Amino acid sequence: MKTVSLEHFPTKWMPVGRKKVLKANNRERRSDLIRSSSALVIATLLLVTPVAAEEASPSARYSMTPIEGGALRLDTLTGAVDRCVAEAGVWSCRALPDEGRALQDEIDRLAAENAELRGKLPAGGDTTTSGAADHSRPTMSFHLPSEAEVDKAMDFMERILKRFKSMAKDLDEEDGKGTAL
Asked: Which residue in 9, 16, 168, 169 has the fewest CB atoms around it within 10 Å?
């Protein structure tokens, strides 16, 4: 018997087990490539579709609503509302007053004024002004009454109580049935 060495077999011949492993690896590489390219295509479509939709339909920016004597045009991007009327066969649109914009402008103006006034306050949160006379806020102070003022108030109360007592006594005497106080 003749022994055959492996050197005589061409390199294209491979053991069957190794062929199966290589085929499986190639399939995995292809499926990974397909998955990643599919994800890339989907992401591109998702990003491009809204841009293309906006470019394709510029008329979708405005929404028209019929009203008596014309139409209202709403700009869906900015929120501005215009009143459109046909005058001598020509349509023209004029902006309606934006109350929300006017309110926002007033809020912004007041916020700026508030910031300016806070900037004028002295550091440390002290609200009293020193130096310049500020008559916008009255100063409040508390002091105890003097002895003479207390005596005057007590005398006044004593006179009221005596007068009340004498009135009650007079009413009892008129009835004649009352008890003495």
From this structure: 16
The strand ranges marked E within 76-153 are 81-87, 90-95
The DSSP call for residue 1 is -
Which of 58-62, 127-131, 139-143, 156-160 tops mean pLDDT?
A: 156-160
Ordered alpha helix ranges (H), 57-98: none
Give CA–CA dist 61/78, Å, rounded: 9
Q: Residue 20: what pLDDT?
A: 65
Average pLDDT over residues 128-155: 77
Strands of the chain, DSSP E:
62-67, 70-75, 81-87, 90-95
Cβ–Cβ < 8 Å for 62, 75 = yes
H-run or E-run covering 145: none
For residue 128, pLDDT beyond 60: no
